[in-house]
Amino acid sequence: MTDDIQREMEAITDLSLEEALGLALQLHREKAHEGAEALYRRIIEVAPDMADACHFLGVLCHERGRSAEGVALIARAIELVPDFPGFYNNLGNIHVQCGQLAEATACYGRAIELAPDDANLHNNYGALLKAEGRFEEAAASFRHAIALDSQNARAYNNMGLLYAAQGQTAEAIHYYCQSISRIPGHPEAHKLLGLTYYSLGRHEEAAEVFRQWVEVAPDHPVARHLHAACSGQGVPERAADDYLEYTFDRFASSFEEQLNLKLSYQAPQLCAAALSRQVGARRGLSLLDAGCGTGLCGPLVAPMCGRLAGVDLSGGMLELAANKGVYTELEKAELTEFLLGQDGVWDVIMSADTLCYFGDLRRVVMAAAGALKAEGVLVFTVERADDGDAPEGFRINPHGRYSHTCGHVEEVIRAAGLDLLEAGEDTLRTEGGKPVLGLVVVARKP
User: Fold this and answer.
1) Which whole-number Å values give the CA distances from 268 to 212, 277, 290, 304, 420, in the listed order?
2) What count of other Cβ atoms lies within 10 Å of the Cβ of residue 13?
3) Are strands 394-396 and 402-404 parallel, antiparallel or unpaired?
4) pLDDT of 290-347, one tens digit each?
């Protein structure tokens, strides 16, 4: 236990239960998850029938990748206070993110029975109906939410998503604009509206949406990054740290469900298969999962490893990676800087779907080469670009990721003093029903 957490735990003895809960909630909001969980648990030890503490600890456990424990804790809160709609709503949210739609339906239904005039509950229920493909019922729920609260930006945004899912783009744009008019800095509506314009080939309008977003929210990392990506103005050498942390911390709890169920995500499996082709039956490898995310690569390569480490910029992702139980160590750091501090340490560096957030790959690949042992292997994926679309060898795309040409990959591998073993083309995922083609690259240090 850290010194800061120990001091917080000692301070609780001088607080009322309500004050202690307030302190735990503050830590929770600030993403000091370890300290928040310790305080919630201390409160429950002192007052096991305090429903709010059980509820918020359940939400936190889900956010930390322990959803079954979170469900049990919120169920306990419901036992203690059976008529509070917020408990059912958050339990429904967890079930949705876990793909348990029948359970979510029951939770939202009960919440609406208890609070029939709560627009947010009808909005959440509509999102569930959309996920089940019940589009007409979903539209009715969103309209009900809007009738109850005409300023509910989330309901307008979800109505836009519903129309987009049915290919009704003009209607989707209308509702995204309605969402933005109610909350000018609304991040998801700006993002969806801009990307919708881009998908229609209306590139100038897309860039203008992102410019307006930057104007009302100049410090928002996603606004800055997508404006640069779509307008071509001020394009960064790689995605900024704050953009990556913001994006993936908020994506963490539903990351694997989204990738596996909706995007048919294959990059970890492709990297693991490529590594297996090179190392054969070797075991006891020291392997760095570079940009490990929630640890999808970990279980695939753990049988080959004596040491398996992960590095990532997102603390939320690292918490979920720890739950895989296969990593010997995990560190929060920017990838290139981390690699520069590793001199000849690793038998293998694997990076699945991480270098798509870098433009020119020279510096990061050079750093990886320095971090490999002699005869060490580098395995990574990038999204593929055609030479005609990326004359510099790489380009940023309006969705915010970079793609790279095969020629650029070959060039940076040679410049780093590595031998290129493979650079095969494969499908990394699907997006919008279309395959995202990438390169699966393997190189060896002489």
Assistant:
1) 37, 14, 12, 15, 20
2) 9
3) antiparallel
4) 999 999 999 999 999 999 999 999 998 999 999 999 999 999 999 999 999 999 999 9
What whole-number distance in Å separates Cα of residue 144 and Cα of residue 429?
36
CA 415, 417, 419, 423 dihedral sign is: negative
User: What is d(CA 371, CA 74) in angstroms, rounded to the nearest whole number?
Assistant: 45
DSSP 366-397: HHHHHHEEEEEEEEEEEEE--TTT-TTSEEE-
Residue 253 is which amino acid? S
pTM of the shown model: 0.83
What's the pLDDT at 1? 47
Tokens of residue 411, six digits: 């060039």
Q: Which 8-state DSSP code applies to residue 358?
A: B
Q: How crowded is residue 244: how many other Cβ atoms within 10 Å of its Cβ?
A: 23
Hey, which residues does 424 pair with through a beta bridge? 440
Evaluate whether 37 touches 27 at the Cβ level (below 8 Å).
no
Q: State the DSSP string of 255-300.
A: HHHIIIIIS---HHHHHHHHHHHHHTT--SEEEEEET-TTTSSHHH
Cα–Cα distance list, 330 to 45, 294, 309 (Å): 30, 11, 6
Quick: pLDDT tens for 239-272.
999 999 999 988 766 555 555 545 678 999 999 9
The token duo for 325 is 């139980």
Among 77-91, 148-162, 189-203, 247-261, the minimum mean pLDDT is found in 247-261
Q: How far is CA 204 from the centre of its chain?
A: 28
Q: Give the residue among 342, 358, 356 at the shortest CA–CA distance from 287.
A: 342
Compute, in degrees rounded to 10, the torsion defined by CA atoms 242, 247, 253, 259: -140
Are 327 and 310 spatial neighbours (Cβ–Cβ below 8 Å)? yes
Tokens representing residue 266 in the block: 């294959």
